[in-house]
Specification:
0% strand, elongated, Helix Hairpins
Amino acid sequence: MIQHYLILSIILFCLGILGVISRRNVFTVFMSIELMLNAANLAFITFSRLHLSMDGQVLALLVMAVAAAEAALALAVVILLHKHKGNLDTNVFSLLKG
């Protein structure tokens, strides 16, 4: 039964990587990153259940808190860049270099 959860976690993580690599829309990239973080959470909780420990569940809560902060900050940056440039293509982030 544990193997099924790990296989699901690997599939979700690979789908997230595919979404980050193949998409140009900023929101789709952020959703793919969130999918990858949720896949990692599933793996943490699975290993926590396997070892009968709460460490993985605490780590998953920490990852969820970091993901919420990342989402809020990224949304603010995206809104400001959209106001400035008018599109949501990932090439807009080249403005932040200089």
